[in-house]
TrEMBL record:
Gene expressing this chain: msrB
Keyword Disulfide bond: no
Gene3D superfamilies linked to this entry: Peptide methionine sulfoxide reductase
Entry's EC annotation: 1.8.4.12
InterPro entries: Met_Sox_Rdtase_MsrB, Met_Sox_Rdtase_MsrB_dom, Mss4-like_sf
Family indicated by similarity: Belongs to the MsrB Met sulfoxide reductase family.
UniProt KW Oxidoreductase keyword: yes
HAMAP family: MsrB (MF_01400)
Start and end residues of each MsrB domain: 8-131
Main EC class the enzyme belongs to: oxidoreductase
Gene Ontology terms describing biological process: protein repair; response to oxidative stress
CC per GO annotation: cytoplasm
Annotated protein name in UniProt: Peptide methionine sulfoxide reductase MsrB
Amino acid sequence: MSDNKKSKKDLKNKLSKEAFEVTQHGATETPFSGQYDDFYQEGIYVDVINGKALFSSTDKYDAGCGWPSFTKPIDSNVTQDHRDSSFGMERTEVQRTDTGSHLGHVFTDGPTEKGGLRYCINSAALKFIPKKKMQKNGYSKYLSLFS
C-alpha cells in the first residue's frame, strides 16, 4: 500500500479520533478549540496523514473565525478545491491533492492585499514543524520562506 493511500484502519490507529473524523469524514472541529488557532510560531504546517507540507506561518493570520487561517497553500499543487453544499451552505472544500483528505474550506474574504483568500483549516488536519526543526525533519527546501 502506498504512503498516500493508507487504509482507513491504519489511519484510525495512527490519528486521533478528531483528526480521523476531520480528514476522512469531513468533520469540523469546534471553533476556537484547535491547537493552531491562536498559534504564531515560525514554521510550516504539514499534513497529519503523510507529513507533506501544506501551509507556512508566513501566510498565517488571525481572521477571528476560530480556525487557523492562511492566505495561500505553501504550493498551489498541494490542495484541491471542491464544491461543498453540506449543512445548507455553499462553500468550497479544501482537500489534500494526493490523499483527498478534508482540510477545511476556502473563502473569498481574506486580506485583499494578499489575494483575498482565507484558507480556514482544521488544526486536527495539521502538524506543525517549527522553523528550527525543519532541516532536521527533511523540510529544508522551505527554509527560504523565512528569509
